[in-house]
Amino acid sequence: MLHCFKPAMQFRTLLRCATLSVSVGLSLSSAAAQESTNRLLIRADQGRFTISRMIYGHFAEHLGRCIYEGIWVGEDSPIPNTRGIRNDVVQALRRIKVPVLRWPGGCFADEYHWKDGIGPRIQRPARINTHWGGVIENNHFGTHEFLDLCEQLGAEPYIAVNVGSGTVQEMMEWIEYMTSDADSTLANLRRKNGRHAPWRIPWVGIGNESWGCGGEMTPEHYSDLYRQYSTFVKHFSGHRIRRIACGANGADYRWTEVVMQRAGRWMEGISLHHYTIPTGNWGRKGSATQFGEDQYHGALRRALEMETLVRRHGEIMDKYDPQKRVGLIVDEWGIWTDVEPGTNPGFLYQQNSMRDALIAGLTLNIFNRHCDRVRMANIAQTVNVLQAMILTDKERMLLTPTYHVFEMYTVHHDATLLPTELTCADYTFESHRIPALSVSASRNAEGVIHVSLCNLHPDQAAKLEAEVQGARLTRIEGRVLTADSVQAHNTFERPDRVRPASFNEARVTEQGFHVHLPPRSVVVLALR
Ligand code: AHR
Question: What values do phi and psi take at 477, rounded to 5?
Answer without folding.
Answer: -130, 160
